[in-house]
Amino acid sequence: MTAEFVIVGQGLAGTALAWALLKRNARVRVFDREAGNRASRVAAGLLTPITGKRLADSWRWGELFPAARAFYRERETELGRSFFREAPAVRLFQSEAERERWRGALCGVPVGFRAPLGAFEMPAARLDVCAYLDASREAFRAQGIYERYDFDPGAPLPGATVVFCTGFAPREDPWFGDLAWNAAKGEILTVRVPDLREERVIHFGGWLAPVGEHLYRLGATYTWNPLDTHPTPEARAELEAKLRAVLSVPFEVVGRDAAVRPVIDAGKPALGTHPRNARVAFFNGLGSKGSLLAPFFAELLAAHLCDGGPLDPEVDVRRWLPVRAG
Ligand SMILES: Cc1cc2nc3c(=O)[nH]c(=O)nc-3n(C[C@H](O)[C@H](O)[C@H](O)COP(=O)(O)OP(=O)(O)OC[C@H]3O[C@@H](n4cnc5c(N)ncnc54)[C@H](O)[C@@H]3O)c2cc1C
């Protein structure tokens, strides 16, 4: 089979794009080097409408979330697996101002937590990212379109459109390698909390997300230097202190993970073709919200690549490429 599209990277970006192109009957090949701590393999997969310290509405939630829900539900049906779950999440109020703003959605404080100002509940969802990526990879392999392969971005291009879905990989490819990144390292702990029976994700300036058998993922830090994937004692101390401030039952740390979020511009994705070569494309910049952003923007990019559909200028990668003279 001669591929029309070579997708480099099978994280959240490359996987969603592969599905969107396959839906259009495009001939696709997917490569992943399967090495190192990649963001998608560390992500907690939370989809939350209100985020951050200031409890801001998540960017374009009203159109991105329905697209994500429909996409993951379709994949679940097609793959016969379950990895997407809608369930309310709880936010413990951090200030009177927060409480004032969200008083309409007040709920009881979850058992095992301390929250003098109370809490509120919001609709949310969660993707088991590794289960979704593994099931997709299996399906791609069964179709003979997936290969573990470390693609050399500097090598002559194959006779197909190459789409770099390589996450944070600065300076690795000669096409998009000089984009200015604002990438952020993130660390997550896995903790065991024997006396907690909470099944919702709890937000408190950090978050605690259940994974079963009294294990929870506790995240996440943001640091900018160095951008490596090594867990640090500082991040562990920060996350433990945050949890200790709100949890009234004991816990122990049983695991640590770190990866770099591919941030380009404050959480806006960057996609499209290269200005000097339309056979080279990019899908990246998913930042801290890959599970939410990937389905909608993969669809947009697939329509652009296959049918010449318009690309939203707000997310066109050309915005961020340095302008070259001549
Ligand atoms: C601590 C932490 C917590 C997070 N929590 C959440 C969350 O709760 N919800 C959420 O939505 N998002 C979360 N994120 C963000 C999410 O992880 C990213 O938005 C998303 O994973 C980015 O996906 P990607 O496919 O662009 O990049 P990646 O996951 O980095 O995938 C890129 C892939 O490309 C491959 N690759 C790179 N170069 C090559 C090459 N030359 N040849 C072959 N293969 C190559 C890599 O092996 C990798 O598999 C979190 C991130 C971190 C770090």
Polypeptide structure, described:
Helix content is 27%, strand content 25%. The protein is of the alpha/beta class and 326 residues long. An 8-stranded mixed β-sheet has the order 8-9-7-14-15-16-13-17, covered by helices on one side. The longest helix is centred in the N-terminal third of the chain and has 19 residues, at 61-79. The chain is elongated. Flavin-adenine dinucleotide binds next to helix 1, strand 2, helix 2, strand 13 and strand 17.
What is the molecular shape? Answer: elongated
- C-alpha-based Rg, rounded: 20 Å
- Give a count of the beta strands, DSSP E runs of length 2 or more: 19
CATH architecture label of the largest domain:
3-Layer(bba) Sandwich
Taking the alpha carbons of the first and last residues, their distance comes to 38 Å
Beta strand %: 25-35%
- CATH C-level name of the largest domain: Alpha Beta
Q: Which fold name is given in CATH as the topology of the largest domain?
A: FAD/NAD(P)-binding domain
Number of domains: 2
- The unreliable regions are none
Average pLDDT metric: 94
The portion of residues assigned to helices is: 25-40%
Largest beta-sheet characterization:
8 strands, mixed
